[in-house]
Amino acid sequence: MPRDASPIRLYLFDADDTLRRTRVPRQPSPRAPGEWELLPGVAARLRAMPWGPHDLLLGVASNQDQVGYGLVTVRAAHQLLMDMIQAATGIAPPAEAVTLCPHRLETPCACRKPAAGMLLRIMTFYGVSPEETLFVGNAPTDHEAARRAGTRFAWARDFFALAEERR
Ligand SMILES: [Zn+2]
Q1: What is the value of pTM for the model shown?
Q2: Is 3.40.50.2000 the CATH number for 3-166?
């Protein structure tokens, strides 16, 4: 059976330039509340989906090397991702399903995308298989992380363009 026949149970999202954008010029990720906003179409699409423990599950996998460079604390970076999901979906996901890579770019690790570590960790947390998981991202590193984790993948522009066409 083709793997696309499995219904999607878990939706994973990249953060920066997939769900949110930073208002501060030349700063790829926010470091404080008020420095970010949801991208157009994101809330409309995600608030229409049935999230919950017995419905669709969600998670976030975000590279946050700015933590490693001391520009923001891991706690603040995680809270900004939690706030983003709350704004986008109207619900608060389990903190364990909102993951970030805090390491410096020059530090080898198993979590920075295109590595699969964050995606695997969230799937393990929920007990959901790669075949039932879709990762939505905007970067080639997101696409490669999905390939390595064995999940399905959608480009953010395609995933969220659907909502805009239906308006
Ligand atoms: Zn890492």
Answers
A1: 0.93
A2: no
